[in-house]
Design goal:
The complex is a heterodimer.
Chain A (H helix, E strand, L loop, with lengths): L3 E12 L2 E12 L3 E6 L5 H9 L6 E6 L2 E3 L4 H6 L2 E4 L11 H6 L14 H14 L15 H14 L4 E5 L7 H16 L3 E5 L3 H7 L2 E6 L2 E7 L5 H9 L18 E10 L3 E9 L3 E6 L5 H9 L6 E6 L2 E3 L4 H6 L2 E4 L3 H5 L6 H5 L8 E2 L5 E2 L1 H14 L17 H13 L5 E5 L7 H16 L3 E5 L3 H7 L2 E6 L2 E7 L5 H9 L19
Parallel strand pairs in A: 3-8, 3-9, 6-7, 7-8, 13-20, 13-21, 16-19, 19-20
Antiparallel strand pairs in A: 1-2, 1-4, 4-5, 9-10, 11-12, 11-14, 14-15, 17-18, 21-22
Chain B lengths: L1 H6 L1 H16 L6 H26 L7 H19 L3 H24 L5 H20 L4 E2 L2 H8 L1 E2 L2 E2 H19 L1 H11 L1 H6 L4 H27 L1 E2 L7 H11 L11 H21 L7 H28 L10 H4 L9
Antiparallel strand pairs in B: 1-4, 2-3
Helix pairs in contact in B: 2-13, 3-8, 3-11, 3-12, 3-13, 4-5, 4-6, 4-11, 5-6, 5-11, 7-11, 8-9, 9-11, 12-13, 13-14
Chain lengths: 518, 337
């Protein structure tokens, strides 16, 4: 019998009367990987915060290696050998890898307060090598890709002697190659006897990696068992509490022939080349490609955030050159960016402030000063919040940063919906949100198309595009390399188009980290 | 190429302005003149090193001018009324500076008042205390103190030697001790620092205390050169110190900066401009305006430089390197990323 290294017994936690966790009981077996899944707001983060010593449970207890474990602050968890690799990495971008690893425990020169740089360097090199990271320990973290930074965090966890490692949505900012590298490392860690909790919305990944699966819903543990007994369907239906017959709502409407957006020969040296595309009223046009293919850059150009040297852009038949975001908005365009935290939301502002942001001028009266009609605005926001089923506290008081990822994304969409644009540019709109919220976003996209809006949907999830779009364009290295009608949708040809222009690397080469810098 | 130029803006600016004034007035290029510049820059340079610590932690200290005043007059009054010998007076001066720094540290870390507001308050209180103690009169210092201002050590003016020692110690502290690295960490991301187990209150507090001590030392050096302290001593010197640090590449948002060459260059640059204007025989009444103008342009360039550097490093589009998916059976994974 494999003993459990970590035991949760009846953990409960409430915030202001709202049950975040209720009587959660399960065990993490030594040397095993446990997949923890659940919708946003199901209680995964709260549970991990309890484990980390950030929050104290209202009732229940935890056992670590059979002994009572009740951390009072994060340092207790670290001392106990538990390390967290969060989605938002806790690295200092202005310091080197070595400095980051040893920031709270530098090796000293004897008893002096001076750092033994050689020892720190040596240990860092050892750790990096064990993770197959070909980087100099003096490299500033600022220079590293998200994938490399994550590995540095893992190195840091290992350097503190962690025996239990928790991964929280680790693959959101990673390329496919980096993800494979991460999985390899996770498997290596398991070989070394480390125990892991893996939290992810990528149910496929969880099935691939996990030995055991635990499903949380509304703060309760609703399912647990060996991973081999789980299927996607079972995972999803347990997570949302009902059988999911389909992941994508049915597309019923058809695009019209009227073009809302016309792009001809758009070029910007080094970024995009000779882009032609037409977006029709009521159409969902997908834009697929690998990271770095120029999709986001193209969207930014269409919206007026970046200039373009050559080409024509017609919005509703009207040619536009040198536009700025304000002009694009006035012409009925909306841009849902891929970084909702940095570019889509005012994290420290309320839901009302966020949702009302773009359409604000429409709620003002008078010439100068333009006074805001708060009640009108609040009503309009409340209607959107209800229509989109955004789960939040009182909208005039809840801050955006306190919402779950899925609800945050809905707030971003709601912000644009308020001004009823005719053209939507959406960049990875379902990144980092759970299955239930994804379905709701897909429904919103469908409804928008049915109402006549034209939507350019950028996504790295081919399945998502195939389920939603009328047509998929493929970009590679700044050029359009393929166009597929709905009837022609098939994974292989689309992927081929996405890889056009990329070097084919010989089979034998390890697609682990890049040698040297970038 | 562009990145290298941008990263070394302080040094380039330094050389450009040096050559500009040298061209306007050849006398400026003499060793004597340069030595004079560095000597005059020493007192604010020392204070600027202290300010650099605080700025690195994403804080600010507006009170150093009042600190200089208060510590100087306490020492001066003790010399005048109790015949305190000069070395002891220096110790007292540094002690007052330390206390000033401790007060700032406590207000910021215990009372959790933001540095701007906290040091604005101590700026007023410190000045007021000093004026009260001196009854707004001037305090003169004996020869035993002013001797420091004119003495030399191995041919180098003593103020410059002290400046150099301070810079060396600060450099070693920042580069070679855990506290120094933690200063950078706290300035970069205070929440991450807390999560990493760093005692952020201790780090920020220490920065304020160091700043206080160095401000007092800088003040003492200035007194050693002037010989007297009047009611306006030290007024607005905090802005010189901040300007010197910022010109030297220290970010007002924390986490970026260095004492050498950074702040040292900044301090000397400012003094160079002031003295250079005199050498170039610019109209006396225009001098403050021109000096302010040059420094404004320098700080503006620094701001633009930071923006440009950020933009350049963001432009890198990450390209996926992969084997073709149909060869390695990795088709499902491609949906990600």
């Amino acid at each position: 019998m494999v003993d459990s290294i970590l035991q949760f017994d009846g953990i409960s936690k409430s915030f202001f009367g709202v049950r975040a966790l209720e009587d959660v009981t399960f065990a993490l077996r030594k040397g095993h990987l446990l997949g923890l899944i659940g919708e946003n707001g199901a209680g995964k983060t709260t549970l991990m915060n309890v484990l980390a010593g950030v929050l104290a449970p209202d009732s229940g207890a935890m056992k670590l290696r059979g002994a009572e474990y009740a951390p009072r602050r994060p340092a207790d968890a670290t001392t106990a050998g538990i390390a967290f690799i969060h989605q938002e990495l806790n690295l200092f971008t202005n310091l080197s890898i070595a400095d980051n690893l040893f920031i709270d425990r530098f090796p000293r020169l004897g008893r002096s307060p001076f750092i033994n740089r050689a020892a720190a360097r040596r240990q860092t090199v050892g750790l990096l090598q064990s993770l197959n990271l070909q980087l100099s320990p003096e490299t500033l973290v600022d220079r590293l890709t998200p994938g490399e930074r994550q590995l540095v965090e893992i190195a840091k966890a290992l350097s503190t002697g962690a025996e239990i490692i928790i991964f929280d949505e680790p693959t959101t900012s990673l390329t496919a190659a980096e993800t494979q590298r991460l999985f390899r490392i996770i498997r290596d860690l398991r070989e070394q006897g480390k125990s892991t909790i893996y939290i992810s919305h990528n149910l496929g990944d969880v099935l691939e990696l996990a030995d055991d699966v635990v499903v949380l819903r509304d703060g309760r543990l609703v399912d647990a068992g060996p991973a081999r007994d789980f299927t996607m369907d079972r995972m999803i239906s347990r997570m949302v509490g009902r059988a999911i017959d389909q992941i994508f709502p049915t597309r019923e409407s058809k695009p019209s022939h009227e073009a809302v957006l016309n792009v001809k020969g758009l070029s910007q040296a080094g970024i995009v080349k000779d882009i032609h595309l037409t977006l029709h009223k009521g159409q969902v046009l997908g834009l697929f490609g690998l990271m770095g293919s120029g999709r986001t850059e193209l969207a930014r150009m269409l919206f007026g955030l970046e200039p373009f040297e050559q080409g024509e852009l017609l919005i509703n038949g009207v040619p536009c050159r040198r536009t700025c975001a304000g002009d694009s908005i006035r012409r009925g365009m909306a841009f849902v960016t891929e970084n909702r935290r940095e570019e889509g939301l005012l994290m420290e502002a309320t839901v009302v402030d966020n949702v009302g942001l773009v359409a604000l001028p429409a709620f003002a009266i008078g010439r100068f000063p333009r006074l805001l009609r708060h009640r009108r605005l609040n009503d309009a926001v409340a209607r959107i919040v209800e229509a989109m089923r955004i789960k939040s506290g009182p909208v005039a008081r809840t801050l955006a940063k306190d919402l779950s990822g899925g609800n945050q994304q809905k707030v971003v969409l709601g912000k644009w919906l308020l001004s009823r644009p005719a053209i939507f540019l959406m960049d990875e709109p379902t990144r980092g949100i759970d299955v239930g919220a994804k379905y709701e976003v897909y429904t919103i996209i469908n409804d928008l198309a049915a109402q006549g809006a034209g939507i350019l949907l950028i996504s790295s999830e081919l399945e998502e595009l195939m389920g939603l779009c009328d047509r998929i364009l493929v970009m590679s290295k700044g050029e359009i390399t393929g166009s597929f009608e709905r009837s022609e949708f098939a994974q292989e040809p689309i992927l081929h188009a996405a890889f056009k222009g990329h070097q084919r690397v010989p089979q034998s080469r390890e697609s682990s980290g890049r040698a040297g810098g970038r | 190429m562009l990145v290298t130029t941008l990263r070394h803006t302080p040094l380039i600016l330094f050389v450009v302005i040096f050559l500009l004034f040298g061209w306007l007035s050849p006398r400026f290029l003499s060793y004597q003149s340069f030595e004079n510049v560095v000597k005059q820059a020493s007192y604010i340079g020392i204070a600027a090193v202290g300010m650099t610590f605080v700025l690195l932690t994403a804080g600010i200290d507006l009170s150093i001018g009042s600190n200089m005043y208060l510590s100087a007059i306490v020492a001066g009054l003790l010399i005048k009324n109790y015949g305190l010998p000069a070395p002891l007076a220096l110790v007292v001066c540094l002690g007052v500076g330390l206390l000033f720094g401790v007060v700032n540290a406590l207000i910021v870390t215990r009372l959790r008042i933001i540095p701007f507001v906290a040091t604005l308050a101590t700026l007023w209180v410190g000045r007021g205390l000093g004026l009260w103690l001196t009854e707004s009169t001037e305090v003169e210092f004996p020869e035993s103190v002013t001797r420091i201002g004119s003495q030399r050590w191995l041919g180098i003016p003593l103020p410059v030697v002290i400046f150099a020692v301070v810079v060396l110690c600060a450099f070693v502290l920042l580069r070679w001790t855990a506290l120094g690295r933690q200063v950078y960490a706290v300035g970069n991301d205070i929440e991450a620092a807390k999560k990493a187990g760093i005692d952020t209150a201790r780090v920020r507090g220490t920065a304020f205390i160091l700043c206080g001590v160095l401000a007092a030392l800088g003040g003492f050096i200035s007194v050693a050169q002037l010989g007297t302290v009047n009611a306006g001593f030290g007024k607005d010197r905090e802005f010189d110190a901040i300007a010197a640090a910022v010109l030297g590449g220290t970010s007002l948002f924390g986490g970026i900066g260095s004492v050498f060459p950074g702040t040292v260059l900044g301090a000397i640059l400012i003094q160079m401009v002031t003295i250079g204007l005199v050498s170039a025989q610019v109209d006396l009444y225009l001098q403050p305006l021109v000096a302010a103008g040059i420094i404004f342009v320098a700080v503006l360039l620094d701001g633009l430089r930071t923006q440009q550097l950020a933009r350049l490093s963001r432009r890198r589009i990450r390209v996926e390197e992969m084997t073709a998916p149909w060869d390695s059976g990795m088709v499902p994974e491609l949906r990600r990323g």
